[in-house]
Design brief:
Length: 636
């Protein structure tokens, strides 16, 4: 059977959408043949048109698509080229394709012999404008590129590549930090720039919105490399030193780390240099849609000089943002600027206001929040605590976090989104991934009530142990779905685990119910009898499941199921070893906890090569030592 995929535009993204449609249809039905002859339209030849809506019928800045295909004839149209690609992936999803994790090997593609008999009709507009993921952790180029390839398959439209170059995240992988069993590999800024160019091209090809930089501007003002959260012994000149924040009577790098160092934001030289750095970057990088302008990545280290201490940090921040806006306007640059509600900047400014709010997007970043429950908007919010310079405590409970957001929303009515962290640290405290997935589901369904127009997840790109349910649900909900959490979980588990999916879902739900995300992230006393009791029960649950379902291994209906069950087998040992360490930690048995932790880290380090795409070994160790309370194991 011949089928013609016709692209009504020369857009690279629509042409890519056409190639993707051919690729997957040929896997669904290998009897299909594709013709590139657009002039030959005989009655025996099927035809699918990929094109755009008329420009006066919808906004090209919002994602909307329509699928009308009957008997392999019809069209997929979108409000912009990216929406056409989203429509292609949704058509494939409606045919039964399931994109379960990054990587082609984790895609479940059905065989449909009678595909020409099917009719599919759907029109959808994205529920939220901002739908994306921000890079964290230790990542190989393959990890990043596979993740980008996966994003539009679930309805995401954005990717945030932190810093001017993603050197920090790539270098963490190439150096194999926290894994003494892997030898460091050579890596350089030049190599990072080459990989970054490839990433930019993959984003462009898919029409994904490109977010960039964030932390790092303060380093740039001081002419320091933004290489990540690393110490530096660089000597600052007197002029550079005068530009850093005065904290406890001293200026210089905060605790030796440039990226954590705030500046003297009342200093006119700091302001002019900051503005010029942003303008220069914007001129050199027109491919960036959203440029994030953040301050240092640390708190309680703002400048205490006489000029700075008379202003809230947010007042000084907004002043700089307005100067950036004016400078960009003079250069006829329309780059959107994302500003940040984070740490000291949670406190809204008292005096300054953004002069041209249409230039800006507000990003609410409640990094210290609890993940034991989702956003629940009370009738009245508490008043935020009074700001005390360099003596703040970050809010944990959701009501206090939302009180800060409300103060900002009183003075800024523009575009805004939630920048959240369920898969940045909290997920390590949920061994089943079902609880954290449900929190994501509920958070996203509350965004409209919070007057937030989307969500970007600051997260590891290797967060698929035991599976990809959290990101799967995140993408589906951000694009817009009427399905319940249970329906989405069923859809995912059926595709991943086959006939015994219900047993797997029940098992992983049981693990989630016994875990505590907040405890793992350092909240509360380390000695915790409830955690002890739960870990004892979790150990028994895992051992029972392993004995019943994984010894011997079950039969598999597909290679995809085989992979997911192999990961479940690895995950069971992961859980047993980690639960034992947490049991001793929560009992206060320090020496036993350290020994159990060493056994766990040796196991995941030794298995990283095989399960590299599923678990970020660097990051789980980094979180566990900085927050949970385990020691860093430098050698075995």
């Amino acid at each position: 059977m011949y089928i013609q995929i016709e692209c009504a535009s020369h857009s690279d993204t629509i042409l890519f959408a056409g190639s993707e449609l051919k690729h997957y249809l040929s896997k669904i039905n290998n009897s299909l043949s594709f013709s590139s002859d657009t002039m030959n339209r005989d009655n025996n030849r099927k035809r699918i048109l990929l094109g755009l809506f008329p420009s006066d019928t919808c906004s090209p800045d919002e994602d909307e698509y329509e699928i009308e295909i009957s008997h392999l004839n019809g069209y997929i149209k979108g409000s912009n080229p990216r929406s056409v690609l989203l429509g292609v992936y949704q058509y494939l999803t409606l045919l039964g394709c399931r994109f379960l994790r990054p990587g082609k090997e984790y895609e479940k593609i059905p065989s449909i012999p009678n595909i020409e008999e099917l009719s599919i009709s759907q029109r959808q507009k994205a529920r939220y404008h901002h739908r994306g993921v921000c890079i964290e952790g230790a990542d190989s180029p393959e990890n990043i590129l596979e993740f980008i390839d996966w994003l539009p398959k679930l309805g995401y439209n954005s990717f945030f590549l932190q810093f001017e170059l993603p050197y920090a995240f790539l270098n963490l992988w190439y150096s194999h930090k926290n894994n003494p069993l892997s030898s460091p590999e050579d890596f350089s800024l030049e190599k990072a720039a080459e990989i970054s160019a490839v990433i930019d091209e993959e984003l462009r090809k898919r029409g994904l919105k490109h977010h960039r930089v964030g932390h790092g501007w303060t380093c740039s003002v001081l002419d320091q490399n933004t290489l990540g959260w690393v110490s530096s012994d660089a000597k600052l000149s007197e002029e550079q030193l005068s530009m850093t924040a005065l904290v406890d009577g001293e200026r210089g790098f905060y605790k030796g780390i440039p990226i954590n160092t705030n500046l003297c934001y009342s200093n006119p030289q700091v302001v002019s240099s900051f503005v010029q750095k942003v303008v220069d970057y914007s001129l050199a990088h027109p491919e960036v849609d959203y440029l994030h302008i953040w301050l240092a990545d640390a708190f309680n280290n703002h400048c205490e000089c006489d000029a700075c201490k008379n202003h809230l940090p947010s007042d000084l921040y907004v002043h700089i943002l307005n100067e950036i806006d004016q400078a960009l306007t003079r250069k006829n640059l329309s780059t959107k600027i994302v500003f940040l509600l984070y740490e000291e900047l949670l406190w809204a400014p008292e005096k300054e206001r953004l002069i041209h709010p249409e230039r800006f997007v507000m990003m609410f970043a409640p990094i210290s929040r609890t993940f034991l429950r989702s956003y629940d908007i009370p009738e009245t919010l508490p008043e935020p605590p009074k700001y005390q310079r360099n003596q703040i405590t970050l809010p944990v409970n959701l009501e206090e976090n939302l009180s800060f957001l409300a103060q900002w929303q009183n003075i800024f009515k523009g575009d805004a989104f939630d920048y959240d962290y369920p898969l940045g640290r909290a997920h390590y405290g949920d061994m089943g991934y079902v609880h954290i997935a449900r929190i994501i589901y509920e958070d996203i369904h509350n965004l409209k009530k919070l007057n937030l127009n989307g969500y970007i997840s600051c997260q590891e790109l290797r967060c698929f142990l035991p599976n990809g349910l959290p990101n799967y649900i995140m993408g589906k909900c951000l694009m817009g779905t009427d399905s319940s959490f249970e329906e989405l979980a069923t859809e995912y588990f059926q595709a991943a685990y086959g006939e015994q999916w219900e047993d797997c879902l029940s098992y992983l739900s049981s693990l989630s119910a016994l875990c505590d995300c907040d405890y793992y992230n350092g909240k509360g006393n380390r000695i915790n009898p409830q955690v002890t009791a739960n870990m004892k029960q979790l150990l028994q649950t895992v051992q029972n499941f392993h004995q019943k379902y994984l010894t011997p291994a079950p039969d598999f209906a597909s290679s995809v199921e085989k992979l997911f069950w192999e990961h479940l087998d690895y995950h069971s040992e992961y859980c047993i070893l980690l639960a034992q360490a947490l049991l001793f930690l929560s009992e206060g048995n320090t020496s036993e906890a350290e020994a159990a932790w060493k056994t766990f880290t040796h196991y995941i380090c030794s298995q990283e090569c095989k399960f590299q795409k599923a678990l970020d070994v660097y990051r789980v160790i980094e979180v566990s030592t900085n927050y949970a309370g385990f020691p860093l194991i430098e050698k075995f």
